[in-house]
UniProtKB/TrEMBL annotation:
Keywords of this entry: Repeat
Basic and acidic residues composition-biased segments: 358-370
Name of the molecule in the record: Teneurin-like YD-shell domain-containing protein
Keyword Repeat belongs to the record: yes
Domain Teneurin-like YD-shell, residue spans: 7-263
Metal-binding found in the keyword field: no
NCBIfam families found in the cross-reference section: Rhs_assc_core
Stored InterPro entries: Rhs_assc_core (IPR022385), T6SS_VgrG/RHS (IPR050708), TEN-like_YD-shell (IPR056823)
Regions annotated as coiled coil: none
Length: 388
């Protein structure tokens, strides 16, 4: 797969047979990754006999070492510490396994940060803890359901977030209030996975730009203005003090492309409870609970898919996937949007009655919720099926 960017040029991606990205390359950056059978990142390449040189670095899918980073875990499987070149981070959790405090021990100082949640598990405040143990430099968050729509900082500056559709997590714009009632609107330009690549003002001037490694760690972040942009993958917010991404119900570590806590659903979460997704380019997990492929593949229920909107990057991906053929599943707002998506991808198809017994070569049918059936328990929403 390849993608082209007007300033970054072309980036080429290479996949393995399971859909994991093994390498990417463009004019400024080249990265190669290796995985074990459970999708854990490996430091070294596989040997010819399929063995690896670092089996001792992973236990119970808990990554202990990767590219100079060292990790430890507590009895619940949560990340307890992360050692980097500039210091060691220690993580503390509450009884609900939510991260409540981070202590960062550096060579000449110790920093502490606290995090506060509401009854629904949404983070409503983050702050620094001074030497006296008091909270300072607070940032407050306001929510609409499970989407963060506003943050207010200590200096009373405020950012209001607008998304591409009423149920999605891909950012569209940001209304910035600095002093008094002065406001300005900034616009997001996102990658195919919905991650912000640029932030522009009303005149189209670039205020912020960022390019990413394969799992979301910045390669280069440029701020052309005094604007801090912390949105990352859909549903994620960067905590610059730790480098972690707050992902609503878990925290994500872009250094290793996985969550810091195991999936709260336990064994039903799959063979690797720390995995974010098969890859970060064509998959999202906006809540830190359920991965969803933008290509529509591997979904256990149709209702778990994110709603894609016409004109969005997800809509373009869906169109190309349907054009290419093969099995795919996509969720749109309503019946009309489903017909539009199918027409964009396949051209004009003839409408056929539901469950028609009349043979046809090129056409489509509207089917109801079929979750009660034995053959299609995953189809728990009305849907379209077609032949071409």
């Amino acid at each position: 797969m390849s993608k082209k960017h007007t300033r970054q040029g072309q980036t080429d991606y290479h996949y393995d047979r399971t859909g994991r990205i093994e390498s990417c390359r463009n004019q400024a950056y080249w990265e190669t990754l290796q995985y074990d059978a459970a999708a854990n990142l490996l430091d070294k390449r596989r040997n010819e006999d399929s063995s690896t040189d670092n089996q001792n670095l992973i236990r119970f899918n808990q990554l202990l070492h990767f590219r100079g980073l060292q990790y430890t875990y507590d009895a619940h499987g949560r990340t307890h510490s992360k050692q980097t070149a500039i210091g060691t981070q220690y993580y503390h959790y509450d009884a609900e396994h939510r991260l409540t405090e981070v202590r960062i021990e550096k060579l000449n100082c110790t920093e502490r940060y606290g995090y506060v949640y509401d009854a629904l598990g949404r983070r409503i405040e983050k702050h620094q803890i001074d030497r006296a143990g008091k909270a300072c430099n607070r940032t407050h968050f306001l929510w609409d359901g499970l989407r963060m729509i506003q943050e207010t900082r200590t200096d009373r500056s405020k950012s209001v977030y607008i998304y591409t559709d009423e149920s999605g997590y891909e950012p569209l714009a940001r209304v910035e209030t600095t002093t008094g009632t002065e406001q300005k609107v900034l616009y997001y330009h996102t990658d195919v996975n919905g991650a912000p690549e640029e932030l522009t003002d009303e005149a189209g001037n670039i205020l912020w730009a960022c390019s990413y490694q394969l799992w979301g760690k910045p390669i280069q972040e440029i701020e052309h203005s005094q604007i801090q942009q912390n949105l990352r993958y859909q549903g994620q917010y960067l905590d610059r003090e730790t480098g972690l991404h707050y992902n609503t119900f878990r925290y994500y570590d872009p250094d290793i492309g996985r969550f810091t806590q195991p999936d709260p659903i336990g064994l039903l979460g799959g063979y690797n409870l720390y995995q974010y997704a098969p890859n970060g380019l064509m998959w999202i997990d906006s809540l830190g609970l359920i991965k969803c492929g933008l290509t529509g593949n591997e979904v256990n229920k149709a209702s778990n898919l994110s709603i894609i909107k016409r004109g969005s990057s997800e809509w373009k991906v869906a169109t190309e996937k349907i054009k290419a053929g093969g099995k795919s599943n996509f969720r749109v707002k309503d019946k009309l949007a489903a017909e539009q998506l199918l027409t964009h991808a396949k051209g004009k198809l003839d409408y056929q009655p539901t469950y028609t017994e009349k043979p046809y070569k090129k056409g489509y049918e509207h089917h109801p919720n079929e979750s009660h059936t034995i053959n299609a328990p995953d189809n728990d929403l009305p849907h379209i099926k077609w032949k071409d």
